């Protein structure tokens, strides 16, 4: 049934084509010449390698281009710098050993005091330079201002206020304060000042050019603070909120003196070599949690004596 139908359709198609050809010859119809337009295809970002080059030795492309007369552009490995602040602390202050413990009336305390007076000549010259660009600067008022900057910066850190923190700390100090604080809860409180803050060191370095001056002032601050750090599950990692501690710190406050809109910001801290080691971080794991739970269960059942 299918074969006779196919033969009938084929014969009908041939008859129609022959009739159309006869009509075109009788009417003298001319077909237009086909127009070829170049069309840009999709750019190939990956060109497969040529066949047979897998085992061959690869030539140096720079030497090959030099032989062909093509000049390779020299590559410069540049590192961007920020001129709003310096990259470190210039001529850092070296705190005397036993500071805040030795009395000035003792022999060793008096010796340290006389050494500080001798080394204060460079600080006086730096303070003169700072006063040329900041007429309101005084060492007495600046120490209290530095303490306020320190307190506001730590409050902004506990609240994760990035905009305020950037206005209170420099670009060098910001990553040092925020590194590792993700998914953690920080509770910090300034209790009281044990000693009035005072300026102990000042330097006025320049960077990039001779007139580009920066002011760095080191402030000694002895205070009582509380610090507690919790992990993302609310478990205590470090410190305590109820137990305050005596903290002796040497803060470095910096300002870009040439910039008329510059402000004093926290730049870093100086940690003396004789400072005591920090408290270890409390790490609570699932195994230690299971042990404490099983110990409590044994105490309830009477297998272990209950600690009073």
In a few lines, what is going on in this structure?
It is found in: Mitochondrion. Residues 123-271 form the Tim44-like domain. With 308 residues, the protein is α+β, with helices and mostly antiparallel strands.
Structural account:
This is Large ribosomal subunit protein mL45. Component of the mitochondrial large ribosomal subunit (mt-LSU). Within the mitochondrial ribosomes, required to direct the nascent polypeptide toward the tunnel exit and position the exit at a distance from the membrane surface. By secondary structure, the protein is α+β, with helices and mostly antiparallel strands. The protein has a domain at 107-270: Nuclear Transport Factor 2, Chain: A. It has seven helices and four strands. The chain has helices spanning 2-27, 61-68, 107-133, 139-158, 162-168, 173-178, 286-301, and strands at residues 185-203, 214-230, 236-256, 265-269. It has a four-stranded antiparallel sheet. A hairpin with an 8-residue loop joins strand 3 and strand 4. The protein is elongated, with a radius of gyration of 40 Å.
Would you spell out the secondary-structure blueprint of this structure?
Blueprint: H1 2-27, H2 61-68, H3 107-133, H4 139-158, H5 162-168, H6 173-178, E1 185-203, E2 214-230, E3 236-256, E4 265-269, H7 286-301
Antiparallel strand pairs: 1-2, 2-3, 3-4
